[in-house]
Amino acid sequence: MWQRLFGFMRFDGFGPSSKPNPWRRQDTPVPPLTETAFNQNPGNLRMFSHVPPGLKPGAPLVVVLHGCGQTAAGYDAGTGWSQLGASVGFAVLAAEQKAVNNPNTCFDWFNPADIARGQGEVASIAAMIEQMVNDHELDRKGIFITGLSAGGAMTAAMLATYPEIFAGGAIIAGLPFGAAANVRDALDSMRSAPLKTPKEWGDLVRSASPHEGPWPKISIWHGDLDHTVNLNNAQASVAQWADLHALALTDAKQEKVDGATRLRWGDRLEVYTIAGLGHGAPIDSQGVGAPAPFILQAGISSTMHIAHFWGLLNRSVVKPKPVPIRIVPPPEQSALPEIEATLAPLDWHPAYTARIENIILRALKAAGLIRKP
């Protein structure tokens, strides 16, 4: 059971991309992380960080949470967050799980004692953030958090239990807050997200803290061939945060971005669905990061797009380098098409057009708001 829940079974990914990438940053080396002791650690976690030399007071902070079987340094190097922070000017905090807490070094996103405000692992991560802000005079209104898989689910827990801390979050191949309260629930949720209405999902977050809003902006990423965490968890996360932001699911704007399908609700909520992608964080190694197990070369950099969505590429507190944005304009159409659920194999031929499921309709169906055809 533990192997199924916490131990990743295989490596899914694409081969190197041959297309040119205007986000190329190979001249920026990967900075090392430094371990720091911190007070108030009820979750018994480790704290690592990178603060770029010359970072001025008032800089943003990005918190990154690794997946099962990964380390803080490995996940940071693979996704390139410290590499990007050194280039455009923000600090990085990387929490790390200990094997004594979880044999496969997964954050315990399903354990009520670790995802309740003021307790366990979420309280440890909150304490790390407070220490980073105080030690380096960082911007309290510019704190963001992201994570993969179990780290993505723990990201959802941090956003629910301490929403006032964060300006934004990003959940990659993760699960919504409240999807599980024990190991059995976690296994079931990974196979298929629980059926709840958007309000029921939203109420789980509202009940996790005394916060009444405003809520952090959220970016959600998932591969449509993820066999470890089902895609409908991304749809449930969309329903959860759309409800919190009082957004209608059907009001999304659909467009293609670097081959992925993005649904976006203004500057508050977005979800990327990546055709042919398995379980992992999508990167474009011609930009930042490098492929590794569950850090997948996909021709699109989740790190860069998330940073842009958060606004981190529009501000700088060290000497910046220009970061152009490559976005494919959306097709001219008045309504989102209903696309059949069966996906054709991905062959990367230039004429190939990936067929993906309509995530809005899937979310509505999963929530029981409309009937299945």
Q: What's this, in brief?
A:
The chain has 373 residues and is an alpha/beta fold. It is built from 10 helices and 12 strands. It has a single domain, classed as Alpha/Beta hydrolase fold, catalytic domain (Rossmann fold, 3-Layer(aba) Sandwich).
Shape: globular
Question: β content, as a range?
Answer: 15-25%
Output the CATH topology.
Answer: Rossmann fold
The residue ranges in which pLDDT falls below 50 over 5 or more consecutive positions are 1-26, 316-361, 363-373
Assigned CATH class: Alpha Beta
Q: Mean pLDDT across all residues, rounded? A: 83
> What is the terminal-to-terminal distance?
35 Å
Share of helix among residues?
25-40%
Strand order of the largest sheet: 1-2-4-3-5-6-7-10-9-8
Please identify which CATH superfamily we are dealing with.
Alpha/Beta hydrolase fold, catalytic domain
SSE order in H/E notation? Answer: HEEEHHEHEHEHHEHEEEEEHH
Total domains, how many?
Answer: 1
Radius of gyration: 19 Å
Under the CATH scheme, which architecture would be assigned? 3-Layer(aba) Sandwich
Describe this structure in words.
- The protein has 373 residues and is of the alpha/beta class.
- It has one domain (2-366): Alpha/Beta hydrolase fold, catalytic domain (Rossmann fold, 3-Layer(aba) Sandwich), CATH 3.40.50.1820.
- It is built from 10 helices and 12 strands.
- It has helices at 2-6, 72-79, 81-88, 120-136, 150-161, 183-191, 198-206, 232-244, 302-310, 359-366, and strands at 34-35, 46-50, 61-65, 91-96, 143-148, 168-172, 217-223, 253-257, 260-265, 269-274, 281-283, 295-297.
- The strands form 2 sheets. The chain has a 10-stranded mixed beta sheet with strand order 1-2-4-3-5-6-7-10-9-8, sandwiched between helices. It has a two-stranded parallel ribbon with strand order 11-12.
- A hairpin with a 3-residue loop joins strand 9 (260-265) and strand 10.
- Helix 8 (232-244) packs across helix 10.
- Mean pLDDT is 83; it is low at 1-26, 316-361 and 363-373.
